[in-house]
Every structure is written in C-alpha cells, then in structure tokens.
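Can't attach files on this board, so I'm pasting raw text. These are the components:
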Amino acid sequence: MIAYTVPLFLRGEVITEDMVPFDTRVGAAQFQAPDMSKYVERLPLKSPAEMSDLYELSFDEILDVLEALGDALDFDTNTHLQEAYEASLVANVLPPEMMQNSYRVLQPLFSRDNVTEIADSQVGLDYLNGWVPHTLHDGRELRVRAFGSRVLHIPAGNGGLVSAVTILRSVITRSDVIIKAPSNDPLTAVAIARTLADVAPNHPITRHLAVGYWKGGDLAVEEALYQPQHIEKIVAWGGLASVKHVTRYIQPGLELIALDPKRSATIIGHEAFDDDDTMREVARRAATDIGVANQEGCANARVIYVLSGTDADGLAKANRLGELIYRELVSLPAIISTPPRYPNRELLDHVEASRMTEDFYHVIGGEQREGAIVVSQFDEPVDYSPMLSGRVANIVPVDSIDKVTAAVNAYTQTIGIYPESLKRQLRDTLPLFGAQRLTSLGYACNVAIAAPQDAIEPIRRMCKWVVDEECEAGVVIPLWKLTPA
Amino acid sequence: MTGMTVTEKTARSVTDFMDDPISFFGQSYTQMHSIDRGELEALQRQAMGIRFQQHRASIEMLRKLADRLGITALNDFNDVVPLFFSHTAFKSYPAALVDKKRFDLMTKWLDKLTSYDLSDVDTAGCTGIDDWIDRLDEQTPLEVITSSGTTGTISILPKDKHGARDGMTLWKICLFQTFGQEPTERELNPSVDVVWPNFANGKLGHLRIANMIKGGFTGGDESKFHALYPFAVDTDLMFLASKMRAAASRGELDRLQIDPALAARKDEFIAMQARQPQDMDAFFSRITEQLRGKRVFMLGTYHLMYDIAKAGLERGVRNVFAPDSAILTGGGMKGVALPDDFMDVIKTFLGVDRIQVGYGFSESSTFHWGCSEGRYHVAPWVIPFVLDPETSEPLPRTGVQTGRAAVYDILLRAHWGGVISGDEVTINWDLKCPCGQASVAFEPEIMRYSEKQGVEDDRITCAATHEVHNEAVNFMKGLDL
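---
Top answer:
Structure tokens for the assembled complex are below.
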C-alpha cells in the first residue's frame, strides 16, 4: 500500500513521475518518490552564474516573499501542509495532536521581525546586503561581503521546524539550496516549497530551491551530486550514520557543516528543595524538558543531576522530586507530550530490570509505557543512559557541584539549570567539558533560532565570506618596494 | 513401563520429570521427543507450578516481581508470561560496582537473582570479575557464566555446577543419538577428542562451556581437548571493552579511567591476536594430522567452520574425521552472507555424514536440536512461548505464530527459568513434523530483532543514540563470540 507520495520539487516544478516505492517504519505501508537517479543531473545549478539573480533582490523583497510564505503557511487552509501532516502520521513517531501543532508553529517563524532578527544577529544585514568597509592597521581598505553558497541540506526529521529553519536560513543567505527530505519528515520541506511556488511563482527564491527524497546512502544519487562542481557545502543534522556517511564525500571545495547528534542534561541545585512550591515548580520545569515532543530531540532532558546529597535525607528528597516530576510529566498537555507511540523495547526492559534492583534504583511509573523516572540511589546515572527516550529520565543525586561536570561530555548540547545563580556559577566551566547551550530549567526545548547552534554559527558557515581589498601603494607598503629586514 | 496408564505415570513422576529428566526419559533422545503432547503439557504445567513455588521462596527478585503483580501460583502456561525476565535482569547491577571493586555488593546483587544463599561468600580483596567468579565457584554451587553487552555492563548468569553436568550429559544424548533409535553403548559413552576452534578458556559465554565440554566429553583429559588459541580470554578484559564501547557512545572516552593492570592485559591480548595466524596453522596441522580419521566432537559457528573447511580444501585436505563424529554449529549468520554451498564445503572437509545445528540463548540453559527438516525441536522440559514483539503478550498456542521467543525452562534451578529472548521465531503449533518427533519446534528461520531493526531505516533525528561513535574497541574485534 502506498501511503503517500514525496514529489520532487525542482526549482518550482513539481515532478511526480518515474515513481519508485520505499518502505516506511510502519508495517506494510510504503511511500513513493520519483527515482532520483533519473533526475539527479537536474538537481544542481548548471552554472554558479545562475545565482546572480539572487543578488538583484533587495533584502526587503526577501522579507516580502518570506512574509507572504508565512501568511500562506496556515494549517487550516494550506492543503500542502495538510498533506504533509497526513504523511507524518505514518512516517513519524509522534502522535497526531503534536504533529498538527508542529505545523501551526511554522507561520510566525517567517514574520518580518523574526527573519530580520535572525539575519541581523546571526550574520549581519550589512554583510548580507553589501560590502562592509573596514580599514586595517596597515592601511588597506577591506570590504567584506557574505555571499550565499550552493548548499545541500540533510535535515533531521524529528520535527517539521528543522525543514522550515533550513529553508529560512538558505533564503536569507541568498543560497542555492537542495534539501534531501528526511524519511521521518518526508513532506514538510516539499509543502513549504510548494507554498513558496504558490505565493512567489518563478521568483528567484523559488527557482533556487529543490527538495526531494532519495534513500540515504544511495550511491547512484550521492556520488553524482556530492561533488564540488555542484555543491559547496553540506549541512548535515544529527544521525550518526548519516553524518558519518556524508564524510566520505568531503574534499577540498566541498565542506561539511555538521550539526552532530547530541544529547542534553539537566542540573538542579539544592535550592529546589527550599519549599514545596519551589519543588513543584522545579518539577514542572524538569518534566517539560523531559517531555517535549516525547523526548525525541537532542535538547530534551535525559539525565538530571540533583544536588540533593546522597545520604538518606538526600535520597528521600531526590525520590520525592522524582515523584513530582513523574506526576507533572504525565499531566503535560497532548500537544506537548504524550505516551510514546513506539517505546524503545530494549530501554523498557532495562527500566524493568532497574525496578527489580531496588538497592540501586527507584523506578516511578513506566508500567503502562507512559514514561518513567528512574531515581539512582547513588551518585551515578544508569548504565543505559544513552538510550533514554520516550519520556524516560534518570535522576542522579549528587553531594557536590564537582560531580555535575560528569553530566557534560563531547556529545552534550543543552544543559537546563536551576536556579540561575547555579548557572552563572557553572557557565565558565561546563563549556570546557562540551556544553554548548546553558538555559533556564524548563526552556531546554524552547530553542531560539536567532542564536548560535551546537556551538557553531551555521548561518555564517553557510556563507562565503568574500574580501575585496583596496591597497594604495602610497599607504600600504608594496612588496615590490620591500627592503631586506 | 509398558501397561502403565498415562495418569499413573504423570502422578508418579512429575518430580522425576522436573528434577531428573535424563533418567525420566531413559537417556533416550527418541523418548524425549516421542512423549504425547497432552501428557507432556500436563507434566510441564505441574512442574512449572512447583518450580515457581520453590523459586518464589528462594529468589528475591522473582518474589518481589510476583508480589507486585499479585501472582501467587502458576496454573496455566500463560500465567508465567508476566514473570519473564529479560536479558537486562542479568545486567541490572551498576557497572560502577565493578570499577570500584565492590564485589561484596555484586554478590549481594547476585544473591537476589539466584536460588542459592550467597550471604557467606567472602569477596575480600577480590581483584576483578574473573577473580570474583572463581570465589563463587569455590564457595558456592554456582558456576557463573558472563556474556558481553552494549551498555557498559556484561550479563552475569548464575548457572550452577549441577546444571553444567546435566547439560553435558544432555549434549551427548542429543549429539550422538539418532531419533527413532534407542541409544547404544557407543552413543551413551562416546570416546571422542574435542575440537574447539576458539579460545581455550574463559568465563565468558561459550568459553566457559569449553571447560564443561572438557569435563563432559574427555573426562578432563587435556590431551584430548584441542583448542584453536591456546589462551584464555578474561571477563575483565571484556568488561573493559564493553565499558569503552559505552564510554564511546556517551562521548566520554576522554575521561575513561582504565585499571592499569587491565590496560596491560589489553596489550597482551593484542599481542596474542598478532600471533593468531601461527596459532591457526598449528591448530590446522593438529586436526589434519594428529586427529585424522578419529571420532571427534567439534563445535563452532557457521563462519568459523566454513573458514576452516575452505582453508582445508584449498590445501587439498578432505574427509578429516571419522564419519560418526559429532559436529555442532549454529550461532546465526551475523549479517555476513556465506555461499549457498557452505554446508557442503564444511561436510566435505570434515568427512562427516551429518552436521547438527542447535538453537538456544544464554539466559536459558537448553539447546534445541535441529531435525532432518531443519526445525529446532524444543526439549521436553522447556515450555516455549511466542510473544507479541511490541507488547510481550503471549500469542495463541495454535496455528502459525511469529514473534519474540520466550521460554520457561523447568530444568533451571540456580536462577529463574522464565526468560525472554531477543529473537524473532516462528512456531507452527499444529504441525506434526515429518521428521517424526512429536515435540513442538521452532521453524528454521530465526533472526535477532536487533539485526532486523534499522535495515531499511534512514530516519534521522538530532538526538545521539547509543551507537558507538568510534572504533575505540577495535582490539576486541577478534573476539566476536
């Protein structure tokens, strides 16, 4: 059974021919997409000179187009989005109410204010729109401009927002973009592209966007496309296998911008236990960090270090906090969090084993696969912590702040911290171990786009920073006049 | 036994059936697989109920689980399903206990998993897992088996010496007898050399079996035991590899503290690996010259057997062993395809009439032997289940059912016998197998769920998983058991 079709959006043209089937994660259901080996030659720009039309656009015009796009991304009226939503019910692990909500949050992303803030703070409008002059110490005049590039994106599919952000970033940098649609979010990028074609038919922005699906690792497509004469940069999100796989194509002239697979952690100070109201507030915030989008994301809380102490009193506090977090977790509204549709069987087996190992672990919930809190009864996380997902978190009581650096390692992205004073205390240390983003507890999954991501500035990296130098021989000493030192 | 009615026999012998099935079936493979299904099931039900009461009293983790679920007795087969242990139950101890050499706490943990009382075990000064297992060997009826895992811990299965002895007797019965023929003296007490294309010794999974086989098949005669590699692999090294794998998957290799003694052994192990080609040559000469024409028992995975056979045929060697030798293989294909004629290659080299295959998993104790039709017939003291892979609910015991294999193994006394595997199996409950055996059988196609998943899945999320991010544990690649 073909559950849905992922058309090829080729620079304004929608292609639904030469279909080949692909398996989905749901039983017998398949989806179909045009056989990309037949179209791969048409994916890249024929010549980089064709990008010049993007430079005839004023930034105001870019804002106009994106605003119109945003206005048209109204879930109730946009049939492309509705189609994408239907497909996501088969392709994605998240439940319907959450998927639908993820489409409703796309619209404000493209507002004038939002786009301007992202462009100005993450690159600089001056650099995007012209040559920015600067005089160097030796007297030469520099003029720097951020040019777009020919970029291939391999976005993560655990939320439609990633595809939307990908398109936004590409448009503001005046890039030529090819997006490989993720199999777990097959249609969001296509839906946005088709909407763009509706509001701005034959516009340069539309003509510099291609979206299609091929199976990750399809050599017939990738070896033809991933070449420096076709693309200059690959932006690869998450997915260890996917990022590792892409590295084989990296060579001079073809750069990888890797938004590596990441995990996040949480640190809660002893202040959380000051009084019942505070404890409940902390529990609600921690539960939110765990529960958003069912803990599928990199920013979600998984291991939660608590400065409760590890004596009997400390363990009692940690267990009590665990109970409160569990209660808040299962009370989160369905658009934020639900019991996972496809819980990880291996993880649940480990949780059940921990439940039987009372000397070391106290397990709260989990019997209905609704999520669970495993409270360590000593100062180490569970050995299966890398598997934590589907609303299963591990609370680790610790005696001192020295121990919390264990929460952070080379794969750490976000650290949610309570209270703010503790965050300030830790912010110069945790980055040394790998932390990339420190945020107030409860906001881990409330991610700002107008900020660096994964300790890099991906939008800046997508640009080519081109220098025009002007050297007056009378000011900058020319090499031909150099005397021996 | 002739003339006795089914009812009398059942009433008389449930204790014999569950505590000494070998005698109960007259040491006969044919009898084991000829018993009437209805009669057997009645015995199994009773035996399961009795064993549950014994284990409920003696195994704390089982008692707590049963109490929590409000289960006080087992009457029907499906009653046991909520009480099944997954492999995770045998690795639920914190790995930190091993790092901190808290083998007193490890013993306390294991005590709750086994029916034996471990409260008097002395672990003072214990240096590592193998040392700890030696102490348990010396001080208790246990004969612990370990196996590798992916989460930084290894499974610790509290098997016992009694079970090991029985196990080897059963292996001999299954290996040397032919269904339909009552056993001869030569089959009951075979004199064989053992060919063991593996590391000579160790506490780890199959390696522990090396010693059991040595005892069971050669009476402990080292000269009749021929191992491929003349050294042991210690569990502590495997634990290190497992820990490194886990640290790599967490992004924490930079802060992994390695016990210096263990680090030294790692180098030793790498040196041993470097010597493997010479060891292989020596082993090859030994089996093709010293053991030429002899009756042997040889066991190894398909891949090992095939590699040895192919190398042998290339050297022009064939028909190495006596035709009535026992050859046992299995272990799955581990994702690498062998040529279609691989069995013929193995047979031609070894010179044997039949190659036997078996199916089992380490949390259970029993191997289920393949029949002439390729099905794995379930031993009579094991109650097989096919579970829904998602919900773990039992599928009906009728028709053809595919799902996750689980067993209740009545023979297991040292630990709880209800265990869930990681394997997808099919049972045709209504089948009367053309091989003539009356027993229930697993169909030939068996696949690990872990190998099944991800085959056709290229979905990407931004979250890191427990995949290993680098090749930190390259040094363990030669030890793929």
